[in-house]
Design a protein that fits this description.
The chain is an all-alpha fold. It has helices at residues 2-7, 22-26, 47-66, 70-86, 90-106, 110-121, 128-140, 144-157, 163-175, 179-192, 198-210, 214-227, 232-245, 248-264, 271-293, 298-311, 315-321, 334-348, 352-365, 371-383, 387-401, 407-418, 422-436, 442-454, 457-474, 479-493; strands at 15-19, 327-331. Helix content is 73%, strand content 2%. Strands 1-2 form a two-stranded antiparallel ribbon. The termini are far apart.
């Protein structure tokens, strides 16, 4: 396949592919459901592993619940509640409490389930698995802040030596938009397992992708597949990232190798692998068609098309028209992509000046614009405290492809805020929130903070209220957010 694709593409127009938005494709990553442990000791509770099994188990629980009459169900709940209250053995009591939470949840009595879990969280006991399992249940019910507290209790009681709790903590923190804390927890989980913890590596890759760090995400998913060659989610994620990055041949090789391993082991190829391969091949066909239609016009025609797309519409219009998950052509040659990889290697070794120079060469080699290089150059310049240049680099991206890379608006907001340009910062955060706020509500808090710095209290309040609403749709808003809303309402009244 590599030879076929290379043979059909000119040096300046070799087919490469892209997702409409890494942030849109990955922002929904969160533990929406967890299977609960049946025993008092810890279970295999990795959030993302359990999430992939939860829909089947949830369907079974619903079927079992619907088979009972309301009177039978209520009697069963009360009996279970009484048994849990009377049980003296702490581990058995914890098992009964978790069973009661499951029954309450299946009966649609979430408020009671959450109240019981919060009571469990407040217990004064030394039992790391108990708090770990309590965190899993809270995360499943959307009580992210309480889940964080439970996981931290479990970790603290083991003096940090609790890899699975660290992993789940990292996933839930990512859901809350606390990305630095999430990275610390996921990295701790990996270190505790001597970097052999496949699920933690996969989750760290997803965090990097959420933040727009494509090179680091690709490297993390490569490690995941070395550790667990059967990890289909990592194979698909890595293939899509490579396609978006400018290397569709490598993307197809990843999926082909996975399919071959699955066949040799006697298993079928997962549907998501086949779907990803089909999308990449289809986009490659689109790239070939574009190359043929533009053959007479050459690079000048391509540059004109890019300018028309970039300059003809406002970036916000491009964002609204973006469709997550679709693939489309990207033009890049092998020399340009190798420069990108060298820049990433230098950045990974914290040689930021060298990395910036290599990113610049990659951009120049790509004809003055190469999305991954432009984005990562901006991050590198920001690390070097060259924030004005970082802003200019990201503005180039959003003007051309704001819909394809909306996370750039978030980073623009950060850099403008550090520069004291609050109006520009607020506008950038507002655009990030408009597109991604449903999946990543933390952008509303960024917007609220900067609007308050501007003295625009009504707008700060509106953003804080939007955050609370978004969090409540996903489960529950934290107490501090309600406090922020109350404080801003008071300031608006006065």
């Amino acid at each position: 396949m590599r030879g076929q694709l290379n043979a059909s593409a000119s040096p300046l127009r070799r087919a490469a592919l892209t997702l409409a938005s890494s942030a849109l494709a990955l922002a929904a990553w969160a533990p929406s459901a967890l299977a609960q442990d049946a025993a008092a000791k810890e279970g295999s509770g990795d959030v993302l592993v359990r999430e992939r099994r939860a829909s089947k188990e949830g369907a079974k629980a619903e079927a079992a619940a619907s088979a009972e009459t309301p009177a039978d169900d209520e009697a069963g709940l009360e009996e279970l509640r009484a048994r849990a209250g009377a049980e003296k053995n702490a581990q058995e009591r914890g098992r009964l409490q978790r069973a009661l939470v499951e029954r309450l949840t299946a009966a649609g009595r979430k408020a009671e389930a959450v109240s019981l879990l919060r009571g469990m969280l407040a217990e004064d006991r030394f039992d790391p698995p108990f708090f770990y399992n309590t965190g899993n249940a809270l995360a499943r019910l959307g009580e992210s802040e309480a889940a964080v507290e439970a996981y931290r209790k479990a970790v603290a009681q083991r003096r940090g030596n609790y890899a699975r709790a660290q992993h789940n903590l990292g996933v839930v923190l990512a859901r809350l938009g606390r990305w630095e804390e999430s990275e610390a927890a996921l990295t701790a989980a990996l270190k505790l397992e001597n970097y052999t913890y496949a699920e933690a590596s996969y989750s760290l890759g997803r965090l990097h992708a959420l933040r727009g760090e494509a090179g680091q995400a690709i490297a993390e998913w490569e490690r995941t597949l070395r550790l667990d060659p059967s990890h289909s989610a990592a194979a698909v994620a890595r293939a899509r990232a490579l396609a978006e990055d400018g290397d569709p041949e490598a993307a197809l090789e990843v999926l082909g190798a996975f399919a071959s391993r699955a066949s040799r082991s006697g298993g079928g190829v997962p549907r998501e692998v086949a779907v990803a391969r089909g999308e990449i091949l289809a986009a490659a066909h689109v790239a070939d068609s574009a190359r043929e239609s533009a053959k007479d016009g050459g690079a000048a025609a391509e540059a004109k098309a890019i300018r028309a797309n970039a300059d003809g519409r406002d970036p916000l219009t491009l964002i609204r028209e973006a469709r997550p998950g679709s693939l489309r052509p990207l033009t890049v040659d092998r020399e340009t992509y190798e420069l990108l990889k060298r820049a990433r290697a230098a950045r990974a070794k914290e040689r930021d000046d060298e990395a910036a120079a290599l990113y610049g060469r990659a951009i120049e080699s790509g004809g003055g614009y190469f999305l991954p290089a432009n984005v990562e150059l901006s991050y590198t310049l920001a690390a070097l405290k060259r924030r004005e240049e970082a802003v200019e680099g990201l503005l180039t991206v959003v003007r051309r492809e704001g819909g394809r890379y909306p996370i750039a608006f978030y980073h623009l907001g950060r850099y403008y805020e550090l520069l004291g340009k609050f109006e520009e910062s607020a506008e950038s955060f507002a655009r990030a929130a408009q597109l991604l706020g449903g999946e990543s509500p933390q952008f509303y808090i960024d917007l609220s903070r900067v609007r308050e710095k501007e003295g625009k209290l009504a707008e700060a309040l509106a953003a804080a209220e939007a955050y609370v609403r978004a969090m409540e749709r996903n489960g529950a808003a934290p107490e501090w957010a309600h406090g922020l809303v109350s404080r801003l309402r008071e300031k608006v009244r006065n």
